[in-house]
Amino acid sequence: MTLIVKNQYVVSGLTGDIIGAAMEVHNQLGPGFLESVYDEALAVELAQRKIKFERQKELPVYYKQHYVKKFVCDFVVDNKIIVEVKAISTLSEIDRVQLTSYLKASGTEIGLLLNFGGRSLEFKRMIYSKENRQNQCLSEMD
Asked: What architecture is domain 2-141?
């Protein structure tokens, strides 16, 4: 996972900043709202912390240079990290697969799943390695 070795400080610092923003949102709102509420609140918190992001970014998928589909992710932070927001009881394999699809479609290596649905914030950091894309290597870090 070369990205982690080369840019460990940048990635861990930025993911830490995003998680910190999400924790603040969860501390202020608690569980029980719709995903869209947490999405809006996280956008406010990221902006207040001066963290660059795009919302609802389209990620096109191509097959043999033909456009076949597009995904829309919740956030792309600093053109480096895809962030997917959830408000469910617990993250599932379906949520991990969704983020993996976004990482593959975008060519991005780092993703965060943020779940505001529990009593405390649940998050998963996911790394999709460029070196092992043919093997679809994905590692997950809590």
From this structure: 3-Layer(aba) Sandwich (3.40)
